[in-house]
Amino acid sequence: MRKLFALVLTLTTLFTMAYAETAFDPAQYTEEELREIDTLIHMHLTKTEEGTVLYDDNGIYIEYRGLYIDNYYDAVGVNLFIQNNFGRYLVFDKWNAAVNKATMRLGISAGTGLNDGQMHMTITEGNWHLKFEDLAVWEFTTIQSLDFTINVRDEEWTTYFSIPVSLTLDYPIVYPE
Fold first, then answer.
1. Angstrom distance (rounded) from CA 94 to CA 68
2. With 60 as the cut, is the pLDDT of residue 45 above it?
3. Is the CB of residue 175 less than 8 Å from the CB of residue 125?
4. Predicted TM-score of the model (pTM)
5. What whole-number distance in Å separates Cα of residue 126 and Cα of residue 110?
């Protein structure tokens, strides 16, 4: 009950700040509706911006640079900037992708290989994209969340470590005709 009260208080405060002319009455909503409102507000307030650093440690730097339409692959591409200063050749590969919590493949090949000291933008390849045909199966009109894991591996495919990525987005999907 305390959590529900805190949720109602938070929602009331946010709505009052956003819409000073309109009073928010939590009594008009069910507990489930209040949770959904809280989720929507949280997503809106914490949207992942382009330029967000996803990882910066062990000589590896990964930055989110946004989504884009990839006409060649008929897909929505995920643009990441990756820099490898780990001291050896590494492969950055992605697993366990989910769009709006629905499992989906992210790209067509195993990953992106980089020599030590090399930088790369994933917009230059087709390895990091969401095919329109896969998105259409779920009838998505917006990408609200994108979750995946980046595995950092060597040339023998030994995993050094994994980087969980969770992006909160508001990207409208315009399917090609």
1. 18
2. no
3. no
4. 0.72
5. 11
| Identity of residue 112 | T
Query: Are 92 and 150 in contact, with CB atoms under 8 Å apart?
Result: yes
pLDDT value, residue 73:
87
For the record, the structure tokens of 120 come out as 């790369």
pLDDT at position 1 over 50: no
Rounded distance between C-alpha atoms, residue 134 and residue 144, angstroms = 15
Render the chain in DSSP notation, one character per residue: -HHHHHHHHHHHHHHHHH-TTS---GGGS-HHHHHHHHHHHHHHHTPPPTT-EEEEETTEEEEEEEEEEETTTTEEEEEEEEEE-SSS-EEEEEEEEEETTEE----SSS-EEE-TT-EEEGGGSSSSEEEHHHHHHTT-SEEEEEEEEEEEE-TT--EEEEEEEEEEEEEE-----
Q: Check residue 95 and give its pLDDT.
A: 87
Distance linking the first and last C-alpha atoms of the chain? 50
As a whole number, mean pLDDT of residues 146-160 equals 92
